[in-house]
Amino acid sequence: MDIERVILPLKEIPRQWYNVLPDMPEKLPPPLNPATGKPLGPADLLPIFPMSLIEQEMTDKRWIDIPPEILDIYQIWRPTPLQRAISLRRP
User: Is the pLDDT of residue 1 over 70?
Assistant: First the structure.
C-alpha cells in the first residue's frame, strides 16, 4: 500500500525552499508595470511587498533559506502535509 500522506517529524522539516527558476530552460520575462508596460524593479514592488519577499522573488539562487520566523511557526503548526497524488498514477 502506498503512503498517501506524510507528516514530517520536527527534525525533518525543510530549512530551505527550492526555487525552480534556475533550472528552467529559458528565463521568465520580468513582471511588467501595468501603467508603463516596462519591467518592474525592486523599488516598484516596495509599496506592496516587504524587501525580504522581493529578494526571494527576484533571486536566481536555487535554494532559499526559510526565514527563522517561519521555521518557528512550522515547528508549532505545519499548514500543509505532503500529499501523494496517487490517483494521477492510476491507469
Answer: no
Q: Where are the domains of the chain?
A: 1-19+64-91, 20-60
Q: What is the Cα–Cα distance from 75 to 68, expressed in whole angstroms? A: 11
DSSP structural state of residue 3:
-
Burial tier of 6 (Cβ tally within 10 Å: 0-12, 13-18, 19+): exposed
3-state SS string over 71-86?
HHHHHHCCCCCEECCH
pTM above threshold 0.70: no
C-alpha cell at 71: 521555521
